[in-house]
Amino acid sequence: MPDATRSPAARGDAAEPAAVAELPDPPAPADVHARVVDWFAEHARDLPWRRPECTPWGVLVSEVMLQQTPVARVLPRWEEWLRRWPTPADAAAAPAAEILTVWDRLGYPRRALRLQAAAEAIVDRHGGEVPDTREELRALPGIGEYTAAAVACFAFSRPEVVVDTNIRRVHARVFSGAALPGQTYTAAQRRLAVELMPATEPDGGRTACAWNAATMELGALICTARSPQCAICPVAELCSWRAAGFPPPTEEQKTRGQAWAGTDRQVRGALMAVLRRGEPVEPEALLDGLDLPEASADQRRRCLDSLLADGLAQRTAAGVTLPQ
Ligand code: SF4
């Protein structure tokens, strides 16, 4: 019999479906809140955007950078960004080419331009101060539902419902007994996230905000997608997935990893790396010079055209450059 008290990774039998126990009743949210928030108080990473001295602008920049990129890669870029542009007004006034150069290899560089557009709107509409409500944040260009809720919560202590991939996974395992939450954020998951929020009356939403941050951290550090560390998890005794014997993910729940090699993203990234050097490059030299032997001429040209269309590159008389 598989040991249902240990995660599949810990048992070394991830490929073997475990014997599936009947799904238990989900735990009481209040019991989970207390354990996860206490664990966070002791084990949270000391990240600069979590420190009390971090400005709302610093929190906003971190949330945009972290959307598709791991913390380790974000840290140096975030520090450089805040050093150069400590306020929205500074970022709004910066040349787009410099914004993209500092973004470096964080990926999805349209985020950098959208962040600058948000900075401009903050200057125009809010006197240079990051607005403090989810609704006003959501109205900024390029700021989606998640980022608006996260900034309202983490920068302004507003008890908004914050749900990212890590939080969805913890909710799915602890409360729904599922291995993974699936690709799509469903209405049912949203309802569950709302129901799970701690009440805001007793402490003005402090526990609710801590719950958001703590659940996110638990998913990032302990309840990871591939190797959950149930042996040191603060809610192991309450976890529905563990109690059910770690049933494997259904086809619908499985997350498909994003390929990189050979994709247009890789080719676009290689083109941007050349442009970030700062010198105009003749289009043919730019396309021919890529060290990607598997990328066809058609793919190279298509990717350059898409960078031009996205405003991430520009044709000038001297050649292709970052937007001037
Ligand atoms: S919540 Fe804890 S016990 Fe449950 S799967 Fe994640 S790490 Fe394991």
Automatic annotation (TrEMBL):
Top EC class, one word: hydrolase
Low complexity: which segments have biased composition?
8-23
Cofactor(s) required for function per UniProt: [4Fe-4S] cluster
Annotated stretches, region: Disordered: 1-27
Q: Which InterPro entries match?
A: DNA_glycosylase, Endonuclease3_FeS-loop_motif, HhH-GPD_domain, HhH_base_excis_C, HhH_motif, MIG/MutY
Tree of life domain: Bacteria
EC number(s) for this protein? 3.2.2.31
Give the similarity note. Belongs to the Nth/MutY family.
Q: What is this protein called?
A: Adenine DNA glycosylase
Species annotation: Nesterenkonia halobia
